[in-house]
Amino acid sequence: MGTSLLSVVAATAVVPGDPLPPFPVQSVTEQLGSVTVQPSANGPIPFVFDERVQPGDTIQSLFRRIKIDDQEALDFLSSDPESRSTLRQLHAGRSVLALVDGRGKLVSLTLPVARGDSRFTIERTPEGIRSRRQAHPEVDTHIEMRSGTIRHTLFGATDSAGVPDSIATKLAEIFGTEIDFSSDLRAGDQFSVVYETIYDKGAPAGSGRVLAAEFVNQGKKYAVVFHRDADGSEAYYTPEGRGLNEAYLRYPLEFSRISSTFGRRLHPIHRSWRSHNGVDFAAPTGTPVKAASDGVVNYAGRQNGYGNIVILQHRDGYSTAYAHLNGFAGGLRKGTKIRQGDLIGYVGSTGWATGPHLHYEIRVNNIARDPMKIALPTVQPLGPTALAAFKSRTAPLLQRLALLNRTVVAQAD
């Protein structure tokens, strides 16, 4: 690395003899299933993608984000019982590892299973797509540390620092609610990031989670740290313990268009003016519907004009309803605990519906409110015990950020 580059960016790696306290790897790393990468007879070695599941994601939206164009793989995932079961356990924040050839066809896809260390993999073989489960993956996850200074663009600075594009994109997502990266960046802004790199048999095979990050924009400092709660939920917090994730998804399915708004309307079947106590999202039959927030299934069945409906009970008197469903997620029943982003059913046209759509309601103490206008609750803050555990577990990550920042200042001086 030349002197001119060192004046712009500092990059460090965790090595033996690091003066920081031992990093509790078991609390922040996630082992990924091993994948054997074989050169294709029709082209080069496939591309490796490590993608984090976002709240509200479906396997279809993941495929689109990774640029996978493979209907055969989607058909297998929707028809294979073990695949469907694994997809129902696909929580936000977990890692999906995909190998994709140059035509956008899937070579293999590795998914996490529940909250354990086992992984579920589908692979394309000469006999077709096959699945397998691996209980003890061999892939290693290492921690990388990088810092840089903005000269023109975020991606220009991260490229100079050797930060993968997937991590740069994640930084933009994390800080995007505070910083408009298209207009707010200034020359001299700085970033520091601690993240995972995945190694398969000693060779880099993709990037993992952002574990901690800091961005200084126009002199104002923003910092986040990754934390896994005792119940297994994963989220980003400020160093003080304030959660960044939204408590509710505004759209419980991949948004297409609103076909009917909240309020009084002329009912399309009964031809009379009635109150419409929710919002209708037009979407094809079979489109996955996700839980808007953590909760418990209060009802899952058929209910008059609603047709097939799921009602979830949330904290503080909030509930959500999802109606006209074509079918329910497997194993869904009254009392089932649900996490934000979990699959609960599929768009349909059951009940009083003239076409396939999702009727979505938010109720507060059983009174319907407009889902598009209501001020939704924020993420519940950590309690005293959880906050103490959070600060203890995240202290080593914040120390690494401090080390990176001292390096950047020293380089600038």
Task: Give structural notes.
20% of the residues lie in helices and 36% in strands. It has 8 helices and 23 strands. It has helices spanning 3-6, 25-28, 59-66, 71-79, 81-88, 154-161, 165-175, 384-412, and strands at residues 9-13, 47-52, 95-100, 106-112, 119-125, 128-134, 140-149, 190-200, 203-217, 220-228, 234-237, 257-260, 263-266, 273-276, 279-282, 288-290, 295-302, 308-313, 318-328, 337-338, 343-347, 357-364, 367-369. The longest helix has 29 residues, at 384-412. It is globular and about 65 Å long. The model is unreliable at 1-44 (pLDDT under 50).
Give the arrangement of secondary structure elements.
Elements: H1 3-6, E1 9-13, H2 25-28, E2 47-52, H3 59-66, H4 71-79, H5 81-88, E3 95-100, E4 106-112, E5 119-125, E6 128-134, E7 140-149, H6 154-161, H7 165-175, E8 190-200, E9 203-217, E10 220-228, E11 234-237, E12 257-260, E13 263-266, E14 273-276, E15 279-282, E16 288-290, E17 295-302, E18 308-313, E19 318-328, E20 337-338, E21 343-347, E22 357-364, E23 367-369, H8 384-412
Antiparallel strand pairs: 1-7, 2-3, 3-4, 4-5, 5-6, 7-8, 8-9, 9-10, 10-11, 12-15, 13-14, 15-22, 16-21, 17-18, 17-20, 18-19, 19-21, 19-22, 22-23
Helix pairs in contact: 4-5, 6-7
